[in-house]
Structure formats: C-alpha cells, structure tokens
Amino acid sequence: MAGTQASNHLIKDKSSIPWKKLLVPGVVMLVFWGVAMWGFLASGSAQPLVMFGYIGSSLGLGLGLYAVLPKKKKPIGRRLTLFMVGGFLFIFAVLMGVENTQIEGFFFGLLTGVIQMAVIHYFIAKIIGPVLFGRLYCGWACWTVMVLDLLPFKRPSGRLPGRWGWLRYLHFTLSLSLVLVLFFVFDYTNGAAGRTAVVWFLIGNLAYYALGIGLAYALKDNRAFCKYACPVSVPLKITTRLSLMKIGGQAEKCNDCGACVKTCPMDIRIPEYILNGQRVLSTECSLCQTCITVCARDALKLSFGFDLGGKDFLRERAPKLPSKAMSAAD
Fold first, then answer.
1. What torsion do the CA atoms of 100, 101, 103, 105 make, to the nearest 10 degrees?
2. Which of 76, 226, 49, 262 has the alpha carbon at shortest distance from 137?
3. Closest among 138, 146, 120, 125 to 31, alpha carbons compared
4. What burial class does residue 299 get, using C-beta atoms within 10 Å of its C-beta: 0-12 exposed, 13-18 middle, 19+ buried?
5. pTM surpassing 0.90?
6. 10 Å Cβ neighbour count for 250?
7. From the DSSP assignment, how many helices (H) and strands (E) are in the chain?
C-alpha cells in the first residue's frame, strides 16, 4: 500500500512538472498580449497588436522551448527567440516604421513629441518591462546580442580588473549630448522618423556591430560590448533593481562547484547570492539562464519575488604576470 502511494505521488509530481516549467513563459506571453490589446484599444491601430503580440508569442515560444528541451538543446530556444524578435524589430524599424530605434532615436522622439516605435520600445523594454522581467530583453531579444552570440568566445575569462563599466555611461552621455546639440543648437528634428532616421539607425547599428565584434575578439568575450560599452544598459541597470523575476536557488543543493560562474556570459558570481539565501541581485544578469542549464544539481531556477537588486558580485579575470615573472615561475 505504501509503495502504491509512493508511486502515485511520483506520477503526480511528474505530471505537474511541465506546468511549472511553462509558468514563466506563459506569464511573459500573457503580459505582452495584454500590452498588445491595450495598445490596440487605446489607439485603434493594429500596429501594437501585431508588434507586441508577435514579440510576446516569440518570447513565450523560446522560453517554453528552453524550459522543456533537454539540457544540451536548451540554447536552441534562446537563439530562436533572438532571431525571431531581434530580426523582427530590425526589419520593422527599417521597412515598416521607417524610423530610428537606436537610443538617439528615442531621445529625438521625446524631444520632438513623435511617439514612434523607439519611444514605445524603450518605454516597454527598458523601463516597465525590466520592473517585471529584469534584463530579459538583453538575453532574449536584443538584435546586437543576436549577432554577438554567434561569435566563438562563449566562456569569458572574467571582467577586466577595475571599473571599465564607466565607458557605457560615457557612451550614454555622448549620445544624449549629440542629440541635445543637434536639436537645440542646429534645430535638427529628423532623427526620430523618416528616411534620414533610417540611415542614422543603419549606420548606428553597423557601428555597434563593429565595436561589439572588435571588443569580442580583442578580449575573447562575446559580451564585452554589453559589459563595457552598451549605452542601453545604463537605464536598464536602474529599473532592473526592482525586477520581480530573477534567478533564484536552493542553498542546500548548491555545492559551489563554480560551473555557473565559469559559463555565465556576464561573469556573475552566482553562488555568493544563493549560499547567502538571496536571489541573484546583480543588475548585470540578462536572464539567459545558462547558469540554470549547466547546474548539475538543479539548484537554480527562475523565480518571482520582491527584493531590491543592485549588488554586483562579478568575477574579474586574473591579471597577466609580467614575462620575467612568468619565466621565473617556469
């Protein structure tokens, strides 16, 4: 009798696993479809319905595949979503919206009162979205990451020693300053929408790709651009502090083997949070879920909760020894 009860308990647990795994994908998809319906009803235009409905369905599909596929095949879900969402946003901006969705386009949109895709996109993906889902956009929808993730340096050696992240704040400041000077000094107002804006968008993206690929090869790190130079991460690091969805874990399962740290593309020292009874509070986390995939003890998972992020425990790369010291060590 006891054996039968145990068997029934196991069957019940197994049958419930798929629903638990699909909870996060379902919530993400429903939120985006909610935004799509709200935009459609508020504007009377089908554009929000198409754009946010498509993005929500793509994220739901990718997150769902990531949840149910075997560990070795899980990255397929994220790569699929990156191309589905990143490619769609890129094509939408050029062919359908005819506008600039670079961060400068967002600034121009605010200054000119042109509420184009860039303004809506940044408001949803960089301000409201991160409060719910953290930097999910960075890991699953960014068209820059879509290309950088194809490069061969998937296991970084750690961050450069020191505070090189200040470069992204400089990039953000220069972008904002450029727009302000063009708008107020030269009365330039064509940076948000129109053919000129599309040219701006294409040139800006080519510059991002060139810088991102150059940094990746120089530092042997696919995400070097994200860590040191991306201006979009500046507002994201503020709003992500409030994120309801973060990486959580079970301290009793974690043996601090370091597998998650070695494979984390953003170099986050994940066990320091988990063993301290916290979720991963780093605003650098892009929720790519690589750490969940590589954890042999299944100690990590996505979770919803209320806690304030901002503690960045990051792995730095070991300093190179001078050639003389290396010779002496040999």
1. 30
2. 226
3. 125
4. buried
5. no
6. 13
7. 18, 2
Burial classification of residue 287, based on how many CB atoms lie within 10 Å of its CB (0-12 exposed, 13-18 middle, 19 or more buried): buried
End-to-end CA distance of the chain, in Å?
A: 67
Q: How does pLDDT run along the chain (330 residues), one tens digit per residue?
A: 433 333 333 333 444 456 677 888 898 899 889 988 988 888 787 878 888 899 899 999 999 998 888 888 888 999 999 999 888 888 877 777 788 888 999 999 999 887 777 788 888 888 888 999 999 999 999 999 999 999 999 899 899 998 898 999 999 999 999 999 999 999 999 888 888 888 999 999 999 999 999 999 999 999 999 999 999 999 999 999 999 999 999 999 999 999 999 999 999 999 999 999 999 999 999 999 999 999 999 999 999 999 998 889 999 998 765 555 444 443
Q: Where are the alpha helices (DSSP H) in 149-248?
A: 166-184, 195-219, 224-228, 233-239
**Residue 111 in contact with residue 186, Cβ under 8 Å?**
no
Residues 110, 115, 116, 117, Cα dihedral to 10°: 90
Which residue type does 194 have?
G
Tokens 């010779």 belong to residue: 327
Task: Enter the tokens of residue 212.
Answer: 């991102």
Every domain of the chain and the residues it spans:
2-238
Burial (CB count <10 Å: 0-12, 13-18, 19+), residue 117: buried
> In this structure, are strands 245-249 and 300-304 parallel, antiparallel, or unpaired?
antiparallel
Task: Report which of 76, 66, 109 is spatially closest to residue 287, judged by C-alpha positions.
Answer: 66
DSSP one-letter code for 241: G
